[in-house]
Design goal:
Helix content: over 70%
Oligomer: single chain
Largest sheet: none
Structural class: mainly alpha
Number of strands: 0
């Protein structure tokens, strides 16, 4: 499927953009872009969390150039946990703001 995407030129991309505008309308495009951005940010945070979980086990069993003390490791994990919680709360706040700003969306 990648060769198909690679063969898209400027005229094709403009045509796709025009069809999107006709389907969704120019007023809905910022909302769609905002929602897509939030979804990607949440997806990125979740995949980073999964990758961090995967990296924890091998990192503990192998020696690295930068050795952390147990206190530093615990502090780092606490900071990562707090950051994940903040990211989750921010996503909830963004969703609530959207819901309040656009009550007619029906969701």
């Amino acid at each position: 499927m990648l060769p198909l995407i690679g063969s898209l030129g400027t005229p094709e991309l403009l045509l796709i953009f025009l069809v999107v505008i006709l389907l969704f309308g120019a007023t809905k495009l910022p909302d769609l872009a905002r929602g897509s951005g939030r979804a990607l940010r949440i997806f990125k945070a979740e995949t980073k969390g999964l990758m961090d979980d995967d990296d924890d086990a091998p990192a503990e069993s192998t020696t690295t150039a930068q050795q952390l003390t147990p206190e530093e490791t615990a502090r780092q994990r606490e900071l990562e946990s707090r950051q994940a919680e903040l990211d989750r709360r921010q996503a909830e706040i963004d969703a609530e703001r959207d819901r309040l700003n656009h009550p007619d969306s029906g969701v």
